[in-house]
Amino acid sequence: MSESEPDKLQDLEDKIDAFRKKSAEPTEPNEDQENLRVGLRAGTELVAAIAAGGLIGYFLDEKFDTKPLFLLVLLILGVITGFINVWRVSQGMGTSVGIGKSQAELDKSKKNNGE
Predict the structure, then answer these.
(1) How confident is the model over 65-79, as pLDDT tens digits?
(2) Separation CA 49–CA 84 (nearest Å)
(3) Which residues, 6+ apart, have CB-to-CB distance to 78 below 8 Å?
């Protein structure tokens, strides 16, 4: 026995509506996703800082014919900057500074206190 066409269409519409409702609901990231996000950001910050320092140093050495002075100096500065960025990411400091950071912390404390 097969269902009639209107019944099949109604079942399909019900399934589509259920899927839309489920996919429209905001989902909270779980702890593993949050850890993965922080880890990927920290790795990217480290690699980008070291690569930027190395590339800028290389091109300055080429321009001024001072091999390997600028490369070494800027590579070391890139490593230091990379580690500072990783530390900031791991501490949850974000990128905001000054009044923006103070306002964000105030908003966060109000949210946690239920105000």
Answers:
(1) 999 999 999 999 999
(2) 10
(3) 49, 50, 51, 52, 53, 54
